[in-house]
Amino acid sequence: MVKVALAKGRLAEKAMAILEKAGVDCSCVDQSSRKLVFTSDDGKWQFILVKPTDVPTYVYHGITDIGVVGKDTLLEENLPMYEMADLGFGKCRLCIAGKVEDMGKPVRVVATKYPNIAKRFYYSRGENVEIVKLSGSVELGPLVGLSDVILDIVESGGTLRANGMDVFEEVCQVSARLVVNQVSLKTKSDEIKTLVNNVQSVLKEGNPK
Ligand code: PRP
User: Fold this and answer.
1) 139-156 b/e with 16+ CB inside 10 Å = b?
2) What percent of the chain has pLDDT over 90?
3) What separation in Å is there between the alpha carbon of 155 and the centre of ligand 1?
4) Is the pTM of this model over 0.90?
5) Which of 61, 83, 110, 142 is the most buried (most CB within 10 A)?
């Protein structure tokens, strides 16, 4: 049996669309139920639905063999595991952003859901900033005076525009990745390598949007 951790929500639907095409029977997964563990009829696959930020934790500890998760979460959690494929959906940018009128001003405080990425980004440039961790609606930081800027995901840019803010700098581009536990790649080598090859073929043929 190969165990799979999926990030609940839209990412899971897109991940399953690719996995199905790659020969993984995901038909047992019902996101509308309150169930959290699903096993395929043939017993070959088990799926758990977890919060996106917890996917690396389950894969790293070997609770699941593989996972599908955003590159932003991988960078933030920074746990050792193999990143086997860029699945091409969930594309967005990690950016430094702030109020339009503050562009170019010195940064002392950064609000973010990604404190580890923010630390690495600023400290690698020798800039000693204070990082304030938030869990959501990060754009509020500069608006209410909690921080000078934010480090956050920008997809359409709509949230920034609606709040009189703009991108100051791009940190990196992100998208959904297929990750594999380091031990599982040895112990379940055949199943996982076949799956990764199939996923790569599906991606070459054209990614379901
Ligand atoms: C994310 C992100 C931004 C927004 C960016 O928040 O933190 O707030 O989406 O998307 P946009 O560029 O298309 O406007 P999310 O919707 O996940 O909610 P949250 O603020 O509660 O984390």
Assistant:
1) bebbeeeebbbbbbbbee
2) 95
3) 8
4) yes
5) 110
